[in-house]
Amino acid sequence: MNFEKYEDFTLQSVPAFLMDSVDSVLVVNSETDEYRRLSAKGFLADFIPESGSYHDLVEALWFHFSDSGDKITENYHVFVPSFGKFDGKYSRRVKVNHNDEMHLIQMLIYPAGEGVYVFTLNELDESESQDEVQTHNKVTTIQNTYLFSMYIDLVRNTTSSISITEISDETVNTQISYTDWRMMIVNMIWPDDQELFLKRTDPEYMKAHYHPGRTSSFDCLMQNLEGTYIWVKLIFCRSETKNEEDFRYVFMVQDIHESTVSLMSTLKKYEEMASTDPLTGVWNHGRIETEIQNAIKNCRETSENACLMMLDIDFFKNVNDKFGHSVGDLTLKQFAQTVTDYMKDYGGIVGRWGGEEFVVVCYGQDLATMKIVAENLRIFIENQPFKAVGSVTGSIGLTPLHPYETSSEAFERVDKAMYEAKHSGRNRVIVNEGF
């Protein structure tokens, strides 16, 4: 039916005009999870089957990334039923991918009974799509870091104005209570962070700790729409009103993954710098002392064996006196690297205790095994060519770690063993089994 003149339109003729203009009409029943396609043209005739599951239709229309046809991770599909219920008339634009082409659709939804809705869908033409893209590109970088936002009313136990940036710039109409949402979303939080999430999002906790006009936040790992855990900041801001019993909040999820990973990398770098001996690159005195404590604790909690080894470079003073301190430093570095390379297959963690003395904490090794390892290490050092000085030897003390001793007691024992090795001829292994 064609209308060319303003005068041609009447109230009776408008429905026919609209039917001719609309690209697709659907009727759905959310209660029985079904829909029927009453009409369709263009790509919609191919994109939407004639009938099917309403749940699948909701997924197809907006449970994908807004700029592609890539599906959202399955965990988030728990929210599909909430996205398909409407209190009143609803309008929304959605992007869908069909045969690797993006299409922009204007969707109008009309409630027509208990759980029954009429959908009208129109594909926007190319110029309208371009306008949409240009508008989307104007969103600032800081806005794009907010992945999710919604409005919460704790008194009514409701959520509203839900916006999921990666799905659409528009807010989503849902019928989901805050308590239901909270128990659904907890499954997307990293297991170690779930207890904190449940505590900070508990309605009674929020009422007691989030004051009017104030913002509170905490960081955690959360699964994004692709199914990958990323660092996010969960932000709550309580609305400021004159009614003290008005518990309404704005909730936002901010993507802080890139900055957090960068910060952690920087902190790790400084942690390693603070824990590393600057000359040899192995752990420094303080850090290896902590490792002895950790190994004793591990013995106590797991009953796993561990041993402590101490090495001293024989006649190291002669190296400095004969070749100079620069060669002495090179010798220390090569000695530390030699011990580190040899002990890595035996769970050995190497640290410089001071001067030419080194300590090795050996996890998961019993004393019988370590006696053989220590003797083989002694021989390996003796046969290793050292730059400038030719060769060096080492005196080694060895002791097992016991679950209820202190690190000082363990060190005193291995120190005595090492000095006994030096005073009984050097280049040998002495074992002190302790109690």
Helices and strands, with pairings:
Layout lengths: L13 H8 L2 E6 L4 E7 L3 H4 L3 E2 L1 H9 L17 H4 L6 E9 L2 E13 L2 E8 L2 H12 L3 H4 L1 E8 L4 E7 L6 E2 L5 H8 L8 H8 L1 H7 L5 E9 L5 E10 L9 E8 L1 H19 L9 H18 L3 E8 L2 H8 L1 H19 L4 E7 L2 E7 L3 H17 L10 E7 L6 H17 L5 E3 L4
Parallel strand pairs: 16-17
Antiparallel strand pairs: 1-2, 1-6, 2-3, 4-5, 5-6, 7-8, 7-12, 8-9, 10-11, 11-12, 13-15, 13-16, 14-15
Helix pairs in contact: 12-13, 13-14
Would you give an account of this structure?
- With about 425 residues, this protein is of the alpha+beta class.
- The chain folds into three domains: about 5-135, Beta-Lactamase (2-Layer Sandwich); about 140-260, 2-Layer Sandwich (Beta-Lactamase), CATH 3.30.450; about 275-430, 2-Layer Sandwich (Alpha-Beta Plaits).
- The protein has 15 helices and 17 strands.
- It has helices at about 15-20, 45, 55-60, 80-85, 125-135, 140-145, 180-185, 195-200, 205-210, 255-275, 285-300, 315-325, 325-345, 365-385, 405-425, and strands at about 25-30, 35-40, 50, 90-100, 100-115, 115-125, 145-155, 160-165, 170, 215-225, 230-240, 250-255, 305-315, 350-355, 355-365, 395-400, 430.
- The strands form three sheets. The protein has a six-stranded antiparallel beta sheet with strand order 3-2-1-6-5-4. It has a six-stranded antiparallel beta sheet with strand order 9-8-7-12-11-10, with helices on both faces. Strands 14-15-13-16-17 form a five-stranded mixed beta sheet, with helices on both faces.
- The longest helix has 19 residues, at about 255-275.
- It is elongated.
- Mean pLDDT is about 85; it is low at about 130-145.
